[in-house]
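yo

u said u wanted the structure for the complex thing, so here. seqs first:
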Amino acid sequence: MDTRPDALTRPLDRRAFLRGASILTAGAAAAPLAPRGASAQARPKELVLAEGTALKTLNPYRSISTPERHFINLIFQRLVKIDSRGQIVGELAESWEVKDGLVWTFKLRKGVRFSNGEPFNAAAAKAAFDVITDKAYAHVFAAQFSGITRSEAVDETTLRLYTEKPFSPLLINLCSHSASMVPPKHFKDSKEDFSFKPVGTGPYMLKSWEGDTAAVVRNPTWSGPQPWADSVKYLTIPEDQARVAALERGEVDIAVKLPTHDIKRIRAHPNVDVEIFPSVYTISFEVNVLKKPFTDKRVRQALMYAIDRKAITQGILQGFAEPCVSPVGPGIPSRRTFDPWPYDPKKAKALLAEAGYPNGFTMSVWSPHGRYLKDAEAAEAVVSYLKDVGIDASLKIFEWSPYVDAALQKPSPTKAMDMALLGRAVMGADFWMHRLWSSQSPGNITGYHNPKVDQLLEAGRQTFNKAEADRIYGEVQEIVFKDDVPFIFLHHQSQVLGVRKGVTGLHAYSEEYLDLAGVRKA
Amino acid sequence: MWRYVLRRLLVLVPVLLAVALLTFLMLHLIPGDPARSVAGLNADDAVVEAIRHELGLDRPLVVQFGIYLTSVVRGDFGRSIRSRKPVAQELAERLPATVHLALAAACLSTLLGVATGIVSAVRRQTVLDFTVTGLAIAGVSVPVYWLGLMLILVFAVHLEWFPTTGYDSLRHLVLPAVTLGYYSTAVVSRMTRSSVLDVLSRDYVRTARAKGLAGPAVIGRHVLKNAMIPTVTVLGLQFGALLSGAVITEFVFAWPGVGKYAVDATLARDYPVVQAVVLMMAVIFTAVNLAVDLLYAYLDPRIRYA
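structre next:
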């Protein structure tokens, strides 16, 4: 069947008609010979995913939107990856070693080809790293790879990466979709068209992408284990209820981001299952600690005590979030968990008085709307909790683009922001903690500066020992979460997915992308 | 008449120039940074700066506008900042969907609106008239968003007559077209009813009846043609409303048209996309208006264009 969108209005031309007619007659002639059930067997096995946001780019070096990773990870591979148990394993690299903490040698798999036939070898990998580290190319996650000074193709299957200083987080950063391997010739020829003409070494390749619908089919050069589905389709259904309706009707196999207030009803549907996965997304208010009165950590601790997180996660988020037990999200290596902060308005008032604000102060609370689960609603609740302890807080809700602009301004005592609600979700202890809490990091938007934390974070980059890393990052988390609180931590979000009964093997990574290659349908 | 058409088309040039300039200025004046929206929350300022440079957004506004105008004149709308697809290609993928939807809704509102309007005027103060009036009031009052979801629930999920969402076949078109067209149908119906009522009380209608013409002939030949001018005006205006009103309908039904695309582009400050969509809408809107003006002359021979 012609499923192109214009099929319904386009007049049939003669050739198309003849083509259709010849297929029909051929089919009619062949029909008596075909064994029963052959047609059912021949029907392609298709998996349909409904997302809330459309794909913008499938260029792994340009993609910032998590939903794009469902497809980027089907089309592309990286040297190393994080498997479903959270372990770093080789993907295009068979093995690797680090010498003196400065030279990383990767032994690459032999005989791998991109779906367009280009060979994957050390030269291709080097070309990819040349792009990734090219400042003029403006790779969106350049910060993850800024440690790399040089790459070298030693022989056909040996790649070396050099760093100036020991930089242990490099390995986990290489697991990111943003370090996917691209075919050098096609990447160069297609230039920015690579966004919609992606080519990789993964199990699938892009077949079509028009409007908000895209589809991948099996990659003929793929030699790994074959996934169940012949093709995977990506539908964009932005309206929550419409996405649920499509799932209930059976038009889609998997629907993401179900509306939390409707889960009870969806669960009761005979053909639909609801699956909950932890998400790395951690929602906090990031505080301008260079601005009075937030310079005093007792004030920040008072804010922590003033908020009833349990009421917010149960009442507003319907239980699809957990009060923060760590400053980083679940799934981050070296994560340490603590007791959640209790709701204690009395203590909050006492701390405010101690800091010299017995009658509170005036402040503004910033929030986006609809970016994270019930973000503005949670912010609204926080404002009323702050009022309860005598702080005259007012809520300011922004549209996303100017919001990010204002919130990401360089920290200073005159920056407009008092505190702004943001969700953080990046993989790797260093990429999370160093970015946000090192005074050396351009990603530090709060102005937080603790020499001890700075020192630990630098030490973390230089240790290649897991136990040592756990200790170092554990200490950073303890200081940040229990004492300094440059962020007013709220909650860790959950992922709520709906699947048709009979769909098995679905795994959602905590960064909120799905491993679709492992899914089967009964 | 052709001279008139030509003159109207020439007027289009300054209109489009003004539209381009205003859109450009408004986009650049509102806060928000396209380079940041491309780079995301976790990118460093250095990366944002590099993207800004790559996109030419670090140049003076006048230069940017000049470059934009000269490329548009050559038919090059540039590339989307976010997707890097040529804007012309993205529009070519999406415009047909919106036009299908708007046309279907316009047909629906014309046929149904005019028919129900005539019926309720001719059968004034009957149950039929009250029913039509009731439905019309519902039509202008019901939020499009809610109506769309209700239609999906009833006709797609429960009755399974139509698919819930998507853009594949004629069956996919029905629910979105009804959702989008209901409001216009109601407006057209009310407008037709009142102008038909107005004409029905005219002397020439009484004369037509007196000379023994049958009811349908009176309505068809004498009443309708004279009653159509206000209705045609409303239809023309409604078509513009349909194109812009398609945003919500497209959102609810996951219809891959330009409406939702333009809203997303505006939120992400995707300048080239927004500029192209606004220009295109201006062209369509002006063309529809011209068509309406020409229809006047057909409906009322006293109107002449020179």
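The first helix of chain A runs from residue 14 to 30. The CA atoms of residues 307 and 385 of chain A lie 6 Å apart.
cya
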